[in-house]
Write a structure and sequence with these properties.
The protein is mainly beta. The chain contains five helices and 34 strands. The chain has helices spanning 5-20, 33-44, 70-77, 222-226, 348-360, and strands spanning 30-32, 48-49, 60-62, 83-88, 91-96, 103-112, 123-125, 132-134, 140-146, 151-156, 159-165, 173-178, 202-206, 232-233, 243-244, 252-256, 259-261, 265-266, 271-272, 279-285, 299-305, 314-319, 323-333, 337-346, 362-375, 380-395, 407-426, 429-450, 458-482, 485-505, 520-535, 540-553, 556-571, 575-582. The strands form eight sheets. A 13-stranded antiparallel sheet has the order 22-23-24-25-26-27-28-29-30-31-32-33-34. A five-stranded mixed sheet has the order 13-20-21-16-17, with no helix packed on it. It comes from Chitinophaga oryzae. Its main location: membrane.
Length: 594
Amino acid sequence: MLALAPATVLYAQSKEDTILQASYAPPSRGGSILFFIQDIQRQTGISVSYSSSFLHLNKKVQLTGSERSTGQVLNTILQGTGIQAAAINGKIFLLRESSQTQYYTISGFIKEENSKEVIIGASVYDPVTRRGAISNPYGFFSVQVPDSCTSLVFSHVGYETVVQPLPLPDDRQLEIHMQPRNPLQTVVVTGDQDSVTLQAGYVKMPVGYLSNFPALLGEKDVLKSLQLYPGTGSSLESSSNLLIRGGGADQNLYLLDGVPLYHTGHLFGLFSVFNGDAVKDVSLYKDAFPARYGGRLSSVVDIRTRDGNMKAWHGKVTLSPVSASTELEGPLVKDKSAMFLSFRRSLIDGIYGKRFNQQYGKYALYDVNFKLNQIIDNKNRVYISFYKGQDNMFIPKDNSPFPLLDDYKFAWSNITAALKWTRVISPKVFTNTTATYSRFYNFFSQSSDFKLSAIAPVSLNGKGVSRVRDIALHNETEFTISNVQKLSFGGGYTYHNFAPTAYSSNVDGGDAIKRPAPKYYMSEFTLYGEDELRLFDNRLTLRPGAHFGALAQRGSFYASLQPRLMVRWDLPNQQYVQASFAQMTQFMHQLTTP
């Protein structure tokens, strides 16, 4: 009996190997894992056992064409899954190679249910590991989940929480639709608390909060709302200028859909140029600046406008004591493209009438916001945005409060335009390329009549003009390595054209009266890289990075390497300790003409 035992074992091993070496001709080279498993069982009669908890059956696979046996086909379709085929007792079992958990990446876009507009800053996490990610400014997210995970949780302030069963791996790019909460209903919070990332020196203000802040004459104002947060203030009580921790008004970087603005005030700063009805998201960075931002010393105000409703057309008209605004949004092609248009104009000149304008002066302002977004496919999307704001003021010399020698006219305007292309290169890589145009134009004129003789008066007309113009191309790329590490990198080029105040008049009085505008042409280059790490079960967050900026003008070259570092340790009860270091360089500064 002992002599026969080895032969029996060899016979059993040969029999098991025969199962995996059984001849099998695949009906096609492509298909799902489930398709090939079922076909093997049908053709060979061999039973294949597996667990669907870690084997994603509908994953699309491709054979090489050289497979001729059951074992060869199974090895090809299971490659990279961490699962191997084993023959036991006349059956084939699909088993994990080790006890190590396998991870895979799920990405996609988070949108509002009714309008299909993307949602910025929504939380995405696995309820088992409690790890996840935040949707970026384009609503894109990328998260890694274990193969045992069966669902993801999506949450955001003002929206109902969504629990999404995980799709099969061939469908890993999701499109999540979140339903807005009804603000009139009582909200009862039960169960586990959502993990919300907070940062010192960072304010992310939901646009709905604008209605809760005090408003001058009923005008919702983004910048005045930000003034109520710690560390922010203004030069005057009613001004919309921001002064961050003692910095100057020109030391703040204002971005409207990624386009920098050099002037943000209407009516000499009484109102800001940002129409509250057109704004979707507002972020203020007061320190711990992400590496992608540069060029200013004090703060960054990043404002995103609405994309437009992709489901149905909507319009609204709003009246306040000083202005009227209207908006229109809707789909050009349902679920494919949409537009948003808003217009705001002051009513001061129309309310008080012509006689009042002649006695005290005339003032009018208007804003136009337009945005078009087009979904090319599930990986590519294009945005076109445009903004124009205009102020016009006329002060007659014989006005009642302050009689003057001259009639004065003032006009200043902002124009911005942006073309954005976002692309999902892979479930882990998202990139955004933006071409922008920005222009600020300031004009004033004065006119008066002098009687140098008894024959005829002499008219004096003078005007001054100043202008700033930028053309830029930038790229930002996000690479989500895992749930605990994300790389961000990119760069850009900006062409600056500055034309400070020029003055001219109809009287030839030499350079003291007529001065042509000097023009300055400059090139600005930027590069940045940043690594965000979340360690020790997300309690420790490290964000090292660097921003490189350079300015070239007429043979002069100014370069600056600006290191950044943020460290945060989360404590119980939503408390944390944070330290940050940021070196910022500002190449251009605002000078005022007396």
